[in-house]
Every structure is written in C-alpha cells, then in structure tokens.
Design goal:
The chain is α/β, with parallel strands linked by helices. Helix content is 34%, strand content 27%. The chain has a four-stranded mixed β-sheet with strand order 1-2-4-3, covered by helices on one side. The protein has a four-stranded mixed β-sheet with strand order 5-6-8-7, with helices on one face. Strands 9-11-10 form a three-stranded mixed β-sheet, covered by helices on one side.
C-alpha cells in the first residue's frame, strides 16, 4: 500500500483534497501549509472514517487557515525599492532610496529615507530592520506603560522588555525571569495591535500557558483581542 495518497473531503461547502501519509505516529497529525495543501499523518491501522471525522471536527480551523494563507498570497510584497509603500506604527509611508557614501536610514514624517553605499538586498533589509528596531524601542515601551497597569490586580512584577526579529511568533515571555520579547516587525503596526501582543505576553506572567484561564484574563481585559489579532493580516507582506 502506498504510504502517501491524496483523498477528497467536503468541509462545509468546500470540496478539498488532503494528503494522507501513513507512518508510525501515535496521533492523527494535521498541518495546513502556506502552499494551501492540507497534510495529515496517521498510523497504518487508523481507519479512514476516524481520520475524516477528525478532519470534520477541525474543519473551521482548516478553512480559516486556508483563507488566511490565500489572503497573504493576494497581498503585495515589499521589495524595499525606491518608491515602495511601507508602514511604520500603522502609518503609510513612502521609501526614498538614494545612493550615497554611507548606509543609513531615517524617517521624517511619512517618508523613509534610505542612503546606500552598498546597494544590495541584504543591506536594504538590514537598514529596514534597523529602522523598525529604533521605532520599536519607543512603541513597545509605550505599550507596556499602557497595558501593564491593567493587570495590577494580579500582582505581577514589571517585566524586562526586549525585542528581536522573529519569523514564527509575535512575542515571547519567560515568566521565571519576567522577560518579554516583542517581535521587531510589530513596529510596522498600529498601537492597538501592539497592545494586543503586549497583553498576550503579560498574561503569561499570570498563567504561563494557553489555558482557558489565560484566555479568560485576555478577554476580560481586552474583549476585542481577536479582532485586533485578525487586523494583523494586511501588514504581513511588510514583514520582510
């Protein structure tokens, strides 16, 4: 029997195809990939009926993930060329790229000026990250000052704040050391989105997990956090 096969499945009104790989795993595993493929792995003896019942149960998650990936593909990609549009703190800006004697970047109003002695893609990206890092220092400190007092009832300590460019998460928290790290790319986004991530990480100082209790605190303090999270999508192409 071929360990990998493609099978049709109907999720709601969607006629989809998923890739099934039979291998030595204990559970049924699901991944929705950026190329819009649905990958499932399961043990050789798990009945197809069990696998497809699992997929039906995960249907809302699968459809949502497919729609988000499709939306990302339809959005423009930032190339960091002269005249490109980009965002800083949710404000639309224009990139002005010029050759010069130094590699520098600065923002004035709605224009980002980039001077390049080394006109390479790598240097443009380095300067772009430097701009976001500088903007993020101010934005993240302001967000912490806004959000931290909302958790005063929980008696948590003021955390140390760090930032770095991350590809797979918007923030991280080390509860034992009271350190919060924000993704530098968040400096692209408006303060309401930054505040959502800041609250998420601060809540880990209360509940160091993603339990029901964790999300209860999130929802009590910021009832619209899901809407804020969804509002991140248009900014994703600028995370380069």
């Amino acid at each position: 029997m071929n360990p990998i096969s493609q099978r049709p499945i109907c999720l709601g009104d969607r006629q989809l195809t998923y890739i099934l790989e039979r291998k030595a795993v204990k559970n049924i595993n699901l991944r929705v990939r950026p190329d819009l493929s649905i990958y499932v792995s399961a043990g050789p003896r798990v009945p197809i009926e069990h696998i497809e019942a699992f997929l039906q149960k995960q249907g809302p998650f699968i459809v949502k993930a497919l729609d988000e990936y499709a939306c990302r593909k339809a959005l423009p990609v930032l190339t960091l060329r002269d005249g490109d549009g980009l965002y800083v703190a949710g404000t639309a800006c224009t990139l002005d790229v010029r050759l010069g004697l130094r590699n520098t970047v600065r923002r004035r109003g709605r224009t980002v000026f980039m001077e390049l002695a080394d006109n390479t893609v790598e240097e443009r990206r380095h300067l772009y990250h430097e701009l976001l890092r500088r903007e993020g220092e101010k934005l993240f400190a302001e967000s912490l000052a806004r959000i931290f007092p909302r958790l005063s009832a929980y008696g948590i300590a003021m955390p140390k704040l760090r930032q770095r460019v991350m590809r797979s998460r918007w923030g991280s928290c080390m509860p034992a050391k009271a350190i919060i790290t924000m993704n530098t790319y968040l400096a692209i986004m408006p303060e309401e989105i930054i505040d959502h991530v800041m609250l998420h990480e601060l809540c880990h100082l209360v509940h160091p997990n993603h339990s029901r209790h964790f999300y209860n605190v999130m929802t009590m303090i910021m009832p619209d956090w899901k809407e804020r999270r969804a509002a991140m999508t248009p900014y994703l192409p600028y995370c380069v």
